[in-house]
Amino acid sequence: MQPHREGFVDAALIPVGLVVVPLTGALLIAATSIGATRRAHALTVITSGINLAAALGALIACSDGGVIEYAYGGWRPPFGIAVRIDGIGALIAALIAGVALAVFIYSPQILRVELPRDEPSFFAMSLLLVAALQGMAVTADLFNLYVFLEIGSLAAYTLVAVGGGVATLASFRYLLIGTVGASFYLLGVAYLFALTGSLNGADIAQALMEVAPSAALVAAVVFLAIGLGLKMAIFPMHGWLPDAYTYAPSAASALIAGLMTKVSALALLRVLYGVIQPAHRSLLLPIGDVIVILGCAGIVVGSLMAVAQRDLKRLLAYSSIAHLGFIALGLGIGNRDAVTGAVFNMVAHGVAKATLFLIVGGMTYRLGSRSVKSLAGLGRSMPLSAAALVIAAFSMIGLPPTAGFTAKWYLIMGCLEADRPDLFAVVVASTLLSAWYFLRLFEAAFFSAEDHSADEPLRAGWELPVSMLAPIAAGAAALIALGLANQTVIVRLIESSALVAGLARGATP
Amino acid sequence: MNDSLLPLSAVAIPAVAAVAVLRAGRWPNLREACSVSAAVALVVVTTLMLAELRSSGPAHITIAELIPGVALRLRGDALGVLFAVLASVLWVVTSVYSIGYMRGLDEHAQTRFYASFAAALAATMGVAFAANLLTLYLFYEMLTLATYPLVAHKEIEPALIASRKYLAYTMAAGVALLAGMAVLYSVTGTLEFEAGGIPGLAEAPAATRYFVFTALIAGFGVKAALLPLHGWLPSAMVAPTPVSALLHAVAVVKSGVFGCIRTIGFVFGGAALAGLGVAEALAYLAGTTVLFGSVVALSQDDLKRRLAFSTVSHLSYIVLGAALLTTTATAGAVLHLVNHALLKITLFFCAGAIYVTTGRDRVSQLAGIGRRMPLTMGAFAIGTLGLAGVPPFNGFISKWYLCMGGLEADHTGLVLILVISGVLNIAYLFPIVYTAFFRASDDFTEFGEAHPAMLVPLLLTALASLLLGVWPDAGPGAWSLAQTIAGELP
Amino acid sequence: MSDLFASRFEYWMTTALIVIGFYGIVAKRNLVKQLIGLNIMQTAIILLFISMSVQPGGTVPIIDASRSGAIYMSPLPHVLMLTAIVVMVATAGVAFALLIRIHRRFGTLEEDELLERSR
To answer: What is the chain A residue with the closest CA to B111?
Structure first.
């Protein structure tokens, strides 16, 4: 453990704000506001507002290498469960809080259409999901991570299932695969526990220094990687994702697609480079190689599948698989630039994908359809949403000055430093693949011969209601802001955190 | 030197104009007023930048650091300012011409057309003033995406196919640029343009330099329509004529050429290219393209396609000049960048004016038209002679310097190609002029001269070509700028 | 790992259970059977954790001055697994709720028929 900071107790406010507040909010809604949509929504927005404030507090406290440590109930590790927030954790916490708040501001209108009468339950489950994700982002305890992982997953299963019909089936598959993933993760934790007798990340890391590299350690890491790989939908463990994203209600898709997989990726990053010691990395090198290969395969397969889709949500789901491939690739390469790129991509892709799902939700709301064809005339009927679509797509393709470019650039540098021209080629060429399916959307949105904008839309008026448009615009603006200010984020939050600072530049050993 | 807002406003003015055009879509007169006034304002800005360049050196501004050590940065050096002045002046002319053309044809989606046009100009300004490769890449991609709606404008199947082809070529080009840029950055740690080459690159391994050069030239070569990469340009002629005139003869294709000059002179420089042989290879590739474009142009019946192949050929004149790496050839190349722009825009304006007035777009349908549209065809004749390099038109001077440069560099074969190409120019363009004036025909009795909104711009550009032929340093002083640029490059 | 397994036959048992459970999830075409497989797998992992805490001859981990020097069972895995059981039960609860809704909607829980009917 690092020495505890002075002002230990004051820092408690931040983890409480991050995890306990949304948890309480969820319970409060379930207890008091079933059937009272307005109250439930007000509670949700207030709660996630506090959540965002806490996350911003964490951002400030954790920049330039700062760390917040807190032990629940004052039981310090290795006995108690500890929270440890570094720059990366704070960044992901801010991502979660920001996306959640945007989605919650956005959702009442669309929920009235998609889930009439079930809105309060939706808000309660979503807040539960947020609490769990925040818990995963900040916890220092591997078993605690498992618990939050499962709480979040359970919330996600129900959020997918409320779509009804086929969604229940998709949700059940998601549940099966997700639980298998969590079980594998738990199995890996069991091995680590057997080897070191501890569950606290830093503590295990300390103990592992004395443990000779062994097959049991390899098994532990393999199980952890498979478990988290299933949760973050690394190819070929992505089978659950397209259906789940497609059939979930739009607001839930934005939340789950934007955040769920990223937090699992963060957990994988912590395991691979926070818990496992550099001394053991040579033993684990093949695991990194496998992750790299799977990442590449995911990039190619995900992109190609996305090209073939007609349903926008399914298209976005496959593009998620491709982008998770990018993240996996960065984590697998494991030098400083590659991991920085992976972490930045978690944020960039999280924001971009949530924004895109919100836009598709807006189309469903306004035009009553979400097929690629129904994009026709979007440029005329919903010009601002169409502009946001363009910006988010730029980020997904990786064009400067959006956030997606930064992520890709660091990944490319990581490939070059690792002396892997093959990976370099895949990452660079993947631009073309993602450009392919997004430009197809542009063509449909702006130049399609059959223009539906003259047709009677589901709802009249210019553009979406402000409460739906504002979160979309905020997402698009955030992508550009992140792209322009990327050096601040990277230097002060990502590279300054011990996890990344400890990684070698250049080729992996 | 302090940060100057001039380069930023050069990019911002057309960008704001694009938004204003979209907002003013319902009132066509207001919308066109936006376009024209933005164009005029842009000329003022670029002229001011030229003045600043002459008085106190390049104006520059740093916006945000995009990757460690490389910022989004604009800087108006001689080459950039020359290109920006050229594009902005021609934008004014084209804006006026567009009004005549688009209204004459009663085109659909005019708002989108004007907005995309302004956006494309914003991107062109960014390309011109990019102070480093990353900024150039950014605006180069923006240019692709801004011009895509213009190619797809007609929304009919051939237009959509052409636009997809355009995107496939240019996005692939973007990937090549990205690859070259990444490797370059990993070797030198910077992407900042430097006259005479980025320091440290000359010491890099030959294989690395080879890869970077090939990737960058492949990337820029797509827009510059170098031989195997030229396929999109003739297809893109499906766009409305003002687009072909300003973008596919000046802004877009010249951005590619501009990028090639930046790569050769400001990224590599003679030292880093020495011993690689790639510059010579590029020169011969360009030479081949010159001949290829001219020969294919002979057989095109569609007037705009014929002009497009002529563009393919003339763009390679410039690349060739830059690749020769001598001061004379570089000055000739830069001057030809200006001269070809004026000549080709005139020719396209004429083609468009003929199409709007008579509905004809084939070479074989134009016999006798000169008697009905003497001014238009007169301008066309000036363009033809200029492109062929006949004195006293401006094409002569740049071609002369290109040939001199070729002789200095001991590439007699390339000089021969330039001469042959001049002859071919006459062969594919002059018959049009000849039949237009000297073949009698009753086809055109009901038509008169083109609408003044189209006629005045094309006469202006034709006169400008003539003026620059007699007095190459007229106006912004293209000749002295070209010499400055060439002189900076050791 | 071999020494770890040789000394602890219960590891073999849990491994076998995990494989059985996994087989059920992958190979069975009935959703309830898949869920049963999942439960077997989770239970196996719980057993694995518990078995790690066992000390031969150990007693309940209550600190008692009169029994100083006695060997205690490690309490930590037990506590953890209480939580894991809660998680498992919650998962099963959600899964059953989903199954009920699937059955109401499609009238079957056989994967093949579901595939057909959900088209």
So the answer is: A380
